[in-house]
Amino acid sequence: MVKRVTKTERERVQKILDLLDEHYTREYKCYLNYETPWQLLIAVILSAQCTDARVNIVTKDLFQKYHTVEAFANAEQKELENDIHSTGFYKNKAKNIILCAKRLIEVYGGEVPRTLEELTSLAGVGRKTANVIRGNIYNEPSIVVDTHVKRISRKLGFTKEEDPEKIEYDLMKVLPKEHWILYNIQIITHGRGLCTARNPKCEECFLRELCKEK
């Protein structure tokens, strides 16, 4: 049975979104550096269990060395492992990047596909990565459940789930579709600045009165 969102709860959600817009603007911002869709795809694969800042350091040289999808498809795995070593889980990431690049060429003519089904058919690409691509490249309304979105959405009472996919579906019910991409960006910013995991600055938080965990 699908839980219905009450009028009171919708009004509370809108207050939260208005405050997020006020403090973080409605500007679309991606924290990973890229110039092409395939570069973003590879950067997101590298970002698993790694900070965006570290990924940006690695991809600065990586995208100069491997400047096409074909270059990644033809890369030597051991060499690529060395190139991305500092991002962690480098063996799996190198393997997935090569397989992903090969499938992009063989099935999609070197272009990054846009549907969830097509994207998740690529090696190393789950729902989170697929939604990053759909939101940032194709402006398709999508919700990316990273650690910040998971933690803060639970604090705000938008979900009680632990599983990222279940959280995604809960947020799709609660949030207006036109705010899905923005919510991702704003909550990540909020989680890095005020509502940090270890030492949240609750006394400074503009959402304090609306937080279910205050």
Automatic annotation (TrEMBL):
Question: Residues in domain HhH-GPD?
Answer: 46-193
- Name of protein: Endonuclease III
Enzyme Commission (EC) number = 4.2.99.18
| SUPFAM superfamilies from the UniProt entry | DNA-glycosylase (SSF48150)
- SMART domains cross-referenced by the UniProt entry: ENDO3c (SM00478), FES (SM00525)
Q: What exactly does this protein do?
A: DNA repair enzyme that has both DNA N-glycosylase activity and AP-lyase activity. The DNA N-glycosylase activity releases various damaged pyrimidines from DNA by cleaving the N-glycosidic bond, leaving an AP (apurinic/apyrimidinic) site. The AP-lyase activity cleaves the phosphodiester bond 3' to the AP site by a beta-elimination, leaving a 3'-terminal unsaturated sugar and a product with a terminal 5'-phosphate.
Gene designation: nth
PROSITE patterns named among the record's database cross-references: ENDONUCLEASE_III_1 (PS00764)
